[in-house]
């Protein structure tokens, strides 16, 4: 093989390696890029942490609330028909679940008019729904507020760029405008990312709440049917 060709190939390979190293050195560091967003990145970071915390905490809580004991209502029915009200109450109190707390209130009202029993269960159900929805308004606020804060950073960055332009006069340099442009673009992208994530997280949690509420309504109707059944 021609040695000159080997030398030429080695030189090309070495040149490509050097260019690759230079490309790596010139690549954008994500952390440095985020820092170029300025102080606007701080509230966005706080909002992102809040959104993640609320989503994880509520998701786990709703997951526990969606798990239901399939034998619970049958046992309640047997206790009521046998007149074992205390046993029914004890069963309800032994289950840490929204449905069991609703049924407990209904069992404790047995003997009163059915309308009073239904109202008592409904009031407890409203309290349970309110407890399950804890944090969702905050998550919705993050979904709407994060993009607005990002746009605020955009305006601040553009003002900064125009200020540098006005001070530079006819000697405008690109690096003088880079700081404001970085702030404008980075904060906008970050705000949109946080807002989009919070929006999807909010809708996921709302869907899970509605699923649990549907089960609560079904068990309430089942309990009222038990009270309407003739005694054995």
From TrEMBL:
Alphabetized UniProt keyword annotations: Cell membrane, Membrane, Protein transport, Transmembrane, Transmembrane helix, Transport
InterPro entries, per database record: ExbB/TolQ_transport, MotA_ExbB_proton_chnl
Keyword Transmembrane recorded: yes
Domain called MotA/TolQ/ExbB proton channel: residue spans: 96-217
Membrane topology: Multi-pass membrane protein
Subcellular location: Cell membrane; Membrane
Residue stretches spanning the membrane: 39-56, 139-159, 179-202
Gene Ontology cellular component annotations, sorted alphabetically: plasma membrane
BP term (GO), one: protein import
Family: Belongs to the exbB/tolQ family.
The protein's name in its UniProt record: MotA/TolQ/ExbB proton channel family protein
Lineage: Bacteria, Pseudomonadati, Bacteroidota, Bacteroidia, Marinilabiliales
């Amino acid at each position: 093989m021609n040695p000159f060709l080997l030398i030429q190939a080695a030189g090309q390979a070495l040149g490509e390696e050097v260019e690759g190293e230079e490309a790596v050195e010139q690549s954008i560091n994500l952390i440095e890029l985020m820092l170029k967003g300025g102080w606007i990145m701080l509230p966005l970071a706080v909002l992102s942490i809040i959104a993640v915390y609320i989503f994880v905490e509520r998701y786990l809580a709703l997951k526990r609330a969606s798990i239901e004991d399939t034998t619970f209502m049958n046992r309640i029915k047997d206790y009521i028909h046998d007149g074992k009200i205390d046993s029914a109450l004890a069963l309800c109190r032994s289950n840490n679940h929204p449905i069991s707390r609703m049924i407990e209130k209904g069992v404790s009202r047995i003997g009163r008019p059915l309308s009073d029993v239904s109202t008592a269960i409904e009031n407890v159900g409203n309290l349970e729904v309110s407890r399950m929805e804890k944090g969702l308004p905050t998550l919705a606020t993050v979904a709407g507020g994060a993009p607005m804060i990002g746009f605020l950073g955009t305006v601040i960055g553009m003002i900064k760029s125009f200020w540098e332009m006005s001070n530079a006069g006819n000697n405008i340099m690109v690096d003088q405008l880079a700081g404001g442009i970085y702030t404008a673009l980075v904060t906008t992208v970050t705000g949109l990312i946080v807002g989009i994530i919070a929006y999807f997280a909010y809708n996921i949690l709302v869907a899970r709440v509605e699923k649990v509420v549907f089960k609560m309504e079904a068990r309430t109707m089942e309990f009222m049917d038990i009270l309407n059944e003739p005694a054995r």
